[in-house]
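Is this the right way to post structure tokens for a design question? Let me know if I should format differently. Anyway, here goes:
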């Protein structure tokens, strides 16, 4: 099938999305585990906890005490659980750019996801997989550190993209798709862009690859498994298998 995925390849992510839907929240880190706070200026700080308090984020320091900073100064907060022997995350051939491939009828907010993906030049299946991993399609989802809505926008990203109501699905999707596009433009591969979305751009640059944090690696694998059929247990699909895509 020219101009898009084959029927077999296009149907495969549906199964993966269904299978992973219930895992999105189960794999989320516990609030009591140590964390890494990634600042928008590139600094990285190990903390015992991080939580939103109004328009500020409170960072509980490992050595005691706390640091209170404006929420827009924090890019991301990720659980500080490092894999001892992380398996490499290779680049994948799934085109991340826009392709006019409608989502299945069962996908929540499919029309809004499709519109936001098109505006940001992001594949709608990719954005749907990201939303699934971030919020399990819950527009009211809020993390302890203040990531909000369908795409779990942090206050800094919401401000950067001019999002006024993070609980509005259309606005949140616009911000999340725009932020994902920034990461795709900044980094060379889709796995790196996804890792940066989850753990912050500075963390990816620090490790010169997908960081060894279990949360981030689970997140990247989960999205790739949904968006790129066969990522986990078979050779990566080729552009010929998937169609032109973008």
């Amino acid at each position: 099938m020219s101009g898009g995925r084959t029927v077999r390849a296009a149907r495969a992510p549906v199964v993966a999305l269904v299978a992973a839907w219930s895992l999105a929240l189960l794999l989320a880190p516990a609030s009591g585990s140590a964390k890494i706070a990634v600042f928008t200026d590139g600094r990285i700080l190990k903390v015992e906890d991080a939580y939103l308090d109004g328009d500020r984020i409170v960072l509980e320091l490992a050595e005691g005490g706390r640091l209170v900073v404006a929420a827009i100064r924090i890019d991301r907060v990720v659980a500080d659980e490092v894999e001892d022997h992380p398996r490499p995350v290779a680049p994948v051939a799934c085109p991340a750019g826009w392709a006019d491939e409608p989502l299945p009828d069962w996908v929540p907010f499919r029309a809004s996801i499709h519109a936001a993906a098109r505006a940001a030049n992001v594949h709608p299946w990719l954005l749907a997989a990201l939303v699934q991993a971030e919020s399990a399609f819950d527009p009211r989802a809020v993390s302890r550190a203040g990531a909000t809505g369908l795409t779990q926008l942090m206050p800094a990203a919401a401000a950067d993209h001019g999002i006024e109501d993070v609980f509005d699905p259309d606005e949140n999707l616009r911000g999340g798709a725009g932020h994902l596009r920034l990461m795709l433009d900044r980094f060379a591969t889709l796995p790196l862009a996804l890792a940066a979305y989850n753990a912050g751009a500075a963390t990816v640059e620090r490790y010169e690859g997908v960081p060894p944090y279990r949360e981030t690696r689970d997140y990247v694998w989960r999205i790739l498994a949904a968006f790129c059929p066969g990522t986990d247990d078979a050779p990566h699909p080729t552009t010929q298998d998937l169609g032109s895509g973008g």
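Format looks fine. Someone answered above. Worth noting: Residues 7-31+85-242 form a domain with the Lysozyme fold (CATH 1.10.530.10). The chain has one domain: 7-31+85-242.
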